[in-house]
Amino acid sequence: MNRYDDIFALAALFKTFFKGISNDWNKHGFGLTLPQFKVMYLIEREGPRKVSEIAHSLGITPSGVIWITDQLEKEGYVRKERAETDRRVVHVILTDPGGQQLHQAQALQKQLMQSYFHLLTDEDIGHLQRIFTTLNQSLDQT
Predict the structure, then answer these.
(1) How far is CA 37 from the centre of its chain?
(2) How many Cα atoms within 13 Å fall on the side-chain side of residue 52?
(3) Is 94 helix (H, G, I), strand (E, B) or coil?
């Protein structure tokens, strides 16, 4: 195989692996979709965020974030507040029930991730972290 074929095969493996994670997530019924989980996790980690900030951080469109947060708001997991200084700006805030649901999902997600990665040594995981960091930095520069 040449380098292009190797890279193409690697990209296909990434896609298959991450699709499997998503399918397993949905199959286990965590009470949240994976995109909902990612939004809630980001808000918990970084605090209230504007829709545009969430979209940028997660690499999805603002309209996608609005759709996700509308669903989360219906469930009572987030609330939206308009900024006092600029009424056009809406901040998404994690509620207490949202935090509880997130923590339950995190516990289940941790078990799921350990089931995938228990086959790898700490050294292998370190290599993967380094490789993905390099690739993500490359994406950020394009």
Answers:
(1) 6
(2) 3
(3) strand
pLDDT recorded at residue 1: 66
Q: Which amino acid is at 137?
A: Q
Pairwise CA distance, residues 27 & 42, whole Å: 23
Closest C-alpha among 78, 80, 77 to residue 88: 80
Of 111, 113, 39, nearest to 75 by C-alpha is: 39
Distance, CA of 95 to CA of 36 (rounded, Å): 14
What per-residue confidence (pLDDT) applies to 108? 86
Q: What is the pLDDT of residue 14?
A: 87
CA angle 12, 13, 16 (to 5 degrees): 85
What does the pLDDT read at residue 28? 79
Kindly report the CA angle at 62 between 57 and 66, in degrees rounded to 5? 110
What's the CATH architecture for 33-123?
Orthogonal Bundle (1.10)
Domain map of the chain by residue range? 33-123
In this structure, the number of other CB atoms found within 10 A of the CB of residue 104 comes to 13
Sites in the chain below the pLDDT cut of 50: none
